[in-house]
Amino acid sequence: MSDRDQFLRSGCPIVNGLDIFGDKWTLVILRDLICGKQTYTELASSPEKIPTNRLAERLKMLEAENLLLKEQYQTRPKRYKYVLTAKGKSTLPILQEIAKWGNNHVQGTWVPPEWFMQAQPSETA
To answer: Which of 111, 98, 83 shows the shortest CA–CA distance to 21?
Structure first.
């Protein structure tokens, strides 16, 4: 039994998925990583204006869940980039379906670029 298994509230996959993705910002961060953003500054510049304390918190949680890796790309000063793991890339179909639903049911939403809607998890950043 893994450490995560000890903390599951339920055997329901929806409940456990919401424990990871159910907050306001996690899917926005995953979207931005899939779209090619890599650095903290790039992620913080998202048009949705995620608060920096929330961004730092969500990045740590996504790393703990093995959805992304934090890689150092500069030593002085230390700078990091965030890269999706295969597990993180596998969220692309979820984001695509949410985008389709939003376009069909929420008036005024913008249509994602065709490359985003046609992409496969193995093709993402």
So the answer is: 98
Closest CA to 99 of 85, 116, 87: 116
Instruction: Please check whether residue 110 is in contact with residue 52, taking contact to mean a CB–CB distance below 8 angstroms.
Output: no
List beta partners, residue 81: 39, 71
Residue 58 has pLDDT above 90, yes or no: yes
CA–CA gap between residue 77 and residue 48 (Å, rounded): 28
* Cβ 26 vs Cβ 20: under 8 Å: yes
Instruction: Judge contact between 79 and 40, C-beta under 8 A.
Output: no
> Quick one: pLDDT at residue 4?
53
- Confidence (pTM): 0.88
CATH of the domain spanning 3-123: 1.10.10.10
Delimit the domains of the chain by residue range: 3-123
